[in-house]
Amino acid sequence: MRILIADDHVLLAQAVARSLVNNGGFDVEITESLDGALRIVNEVQPDILLLDLKMPGMHGLLSVAKVAEKAGKTRVVLFSAQIDPQFVRDALALGIAGYIPKTIGLQSFVAALTLIESGQVFVPQTDVHPLGSRPGATSSDTDLTGREISVLNMSSEGATNKEIAARLGGSESSIKLTMRTICAKLGARNRAHACIIARDRAII
Prior knowledge:
Elements: E1 2-6, H1 10-24, E2 27-31, H2 34-44, E3 48-51, H3 60-70, E4 75-80, H4 85-93, E5 98-101, H5 106-117, H6 139-142, H7 146-156, H8 161-168, H9 172-186, H10 191-200
Parallel strand pairs: 1-2, 1-3, 3-4, 4-5
Helix pairs in contact: 7-10, 8-9, 9-10
């Protein structure tokens, strides 16, 4: 099985790679950026891509969607120490093959990779619950739309409402309304707080 680890924590990635090679007989390659991951997937088509969410070039679900679109036969798996359950559900809807926490034990890790390679989806039951299993959780009040994620992402980069409106189309007032909706969905006090929450949840 050919595995690509896309993670800028090089020491961790190397340790994971050694463990997989020595204990599972995997063929493992490492890259430190989103661009590197996309290039290798295009050239080599590994069986599984373990995708870190915090490395250079990653911008939350927008980047996950881009990887999923270009993955071809490669099965894409989120690879993170901690992740928001809603983010995982959104990623699964984009075609991601699962989520493996970096805290997983080696035997479970190997078993999860084998399961994913066989065509199934792996998500630790303790980390992600179906929609509606958490009190008050529904798809309508927690999901961010693609436009809302774009607004949030540009806002986190310091863009003003006027600049965001110019890039996405629409008026400043519509962007203000969108930001209010985002804050309501995330339970944020203001746009800065919304950006902080979104980063913590790996939405952007």
